[in-house]
Amino acid sequence: MPTLDLAASSPDITRAICDIPSVSDDETALADAIYEVMLAQPHLQVYRDGDTIVARTELGRAQRVAIAGHIDTVPINDNLPTRDIEIEGEPFIWGRGTVDMKSGLAVQLKLAVELTDPRVDVTWLWYDHEEVDADLNGLTRLARTRPDLFAADFAILGEPSLAGVEGGCNGNLRAIVRTKGVRSHSARSWIGENAIHGASAVLQRLTHYRAAEVNVDGLDYREGLNAVRISGGIAGNVIPDVCEVEVNYRFAPHLNGAEAEAHVRSVFEGFEVEVTDLAEGARPGLDAPLAQDFVAAVGSEPRPKYGWTDVARFSAMGVPAVNYGPGDPHLAHHDEERVSVAQIESVERGLRAWLTQR
Amino acid sequence: MPTLDLAASSPDITRAICDIPSVSDDETALADAIYEVMLAQPHLQVYRDGDTIVARTELGRAQRVAIAGHIDTVPINDNLPTRDIEIEGEPFIWGRGTVDMKSGLAVQLKLAVELTDPRVDVTWLWYDHEEVDADLNGLTRLARTRPDLFAADFAILGEPSLAGVEGGCNGNLRAIVRTKGVRSHSARSWIGENAIHGASAVLQRLTHYRAAEVNVDGLDYREGLNAVRISGGIAGNVIPDVCEVEVNYRFAPHLNGAEAEAHVRSVFEGFEVEVTDLAEGARPGLDAPLAQDFVAAVGSEPRPKYGWTDVARFSAMGVPAVNYGPGDPHLAHHDEERVSVAQIESVERGLRAWLTQR
């Protein structure tokens, strides 16, 4: 089993934990290493469920903050082990997971061990299966088995946010828009009715759709409605009777799930629409006192988060939550994923300062 | 091994050989049974290559006719064993293969055995793998290994033609029309360029396309241009960078392959087009003296054949060829495939009359 040296610098910890591959469903080696270190910390109470590890201080503080990060990554594509590279004179760590989100995780692991006397009680949550179906997400499991562990006055997700504070997140809806026809032999196509041709109108609505930008609690959320998959066809000589377009609607957090679904159904009125996945967004949550205090401490102008993150899960449980982590979210899942060393250090400084100020 | 009783009526032979399943790639049981019977006929010289069987008379006649049929079917879909049904008072045999084309095959097998002294020499060809890729077709193999066996003055394919004569066939072209984009995370779709949305214009051209009807040598061939498959998409959270539309162009036999390809490329001008399969059609071939004689003997007004059949193979080898078989081609590959008993008997009468008249 690999051993973690959390006395190392947070960039060094980033390198070390990226070089322990942990693609979704294969997180156990990394989870074991984290669990071993945390069990050895007298100031932490440690709980493990599968590859999700929760470490809590129990200092009797008036307030509690949840700080969370997922330990899995999307599949490796020839981009491990990590390498040190330089871009315009600045040092970066390159490789799978450096942005999403092992650099943020590295800072959290380091501070969990070092900050034995934080100003608030802290619940550290490190979880598996974030990059796959929400059903598999370690936090989904934990919310079912130990909802008490989510109790907090404020939550910080370590998702990449350019070392700034990104408030809330867009919601995420997936639906199948289905066209139907009548199957026939393609040599006598006039007997049938081509469902793929029928999908032409679906794609036209998508190409003509103009995505909105919506201001929610002072932050501008940019939406998107896109086809992410299309499939149809039985054989090379058959007029197909079904075509499916999977669409993905990323909606600003002014809409709840039902409103988002109604919007998608109205866009595709006249077609069969089956919603297959729906995760509500999260309003920024920046009006909470601890949030304002946090933003002031880290000295960053809050921005909206476009991607769905687990902040929505905390938000839905009544816990205001923000994203705060090193790395450019545009580079998440990218084959050339790389994180600025300066941003890792900045996030470490910001979190440390806020957690230790009196 | 099943044994064939070719003294039975042609409808009974149809029932018997349909009930020996012979889905493409699984024709050996039926081929074995045919081979065994033919080997026992003193008036036939029999050649076998895989599951293709060739049986020839060698009577020294001035002319030779090739009469051919495939022995495979498309997959069974709960439509075997055969059943006798009645439609508007007329008897039909229902089940996979009854139309395409074991009823035509039954007539051929029966006559091959019974007509020991035909007016022309006959080359009977029964072949495998017609319902799958042309590369696998038994006639493709035979044309490579024994092209001499195709030598004939006229050819008749037993493909379903409502017991009438269907001349020539449309050509068949398949191509991939490909759109490209730029991949990105769907939470920030404005960074990418959606290739599925790009395919909207491809589908629009298909929906606006008006297929031609073309008169060739007196017969009207109806064309068709259709999407038969569409695929695109990487994952539910990724803007896809490629979308492929497979199109199928059924073209009248006034065009050769190069002309058909040029037409498809012009329809999809501006898009990447990759031709993946191209089989030229066949002109009706009804001006050949033997063809005129045949049409007169069977007393049927010739019609065009829309579907591609192996008549094109004979046509390309300089042998005029027609389709003549029982069954409604619209029911080929249909789950409710069924053939009129009267049509089986009519084709038997027609072929028998023509082959025995002096």
TrEMBL record, chains A, B:
**UniProt-listed InterPro entries:** ArgE/DapE_CS (IPR001261), Bact_exopeptidase_dim_dom (IPR036264), Peptidase_M20 (IPR002933), Peptidase_M20_dimer (IPR011650), Peptidase_M20A (IPR050072), Succinyl-DAP_deSuclase_DapE (IPR010174)
- Indicate the enzyme's highest-level EC class: hydrolase
Names of required cofactors: Zn(2+)
Q: Which UniProt keywords are given for this protein, alphabetically ordered?
A: Hydrolase, Metal-binding, Zinc
Query: Where in the numbering of this chain does the Peptidase M20 dimerisation domain appear?
Result: 171-269
What EC numbers are recorded for this enzyme? 3.5.1.18
Fetch the Gene3D superfamilies from UniProt: 3.30.70.360, Zn peptidases
One of its Pfam families is M20_dimer
- Domain of life, per lineage: Bacteria
What is an example of a GO molecular function annotated in this UniProt entry? succinyl-diaminopimelate desuccinylase activity
The cross-references to NCBIfam families, in alphabetical order and at most eight, read: dapE-gram_pos
Name the chain's protein: Succinyl-diaminopimelate desuccinylase
**UniProt organism field:** Microbacterium marmarense
Organism classification: Bacteria, Bacillati, Actinomycetota, Actinomycetes, Micrococcales
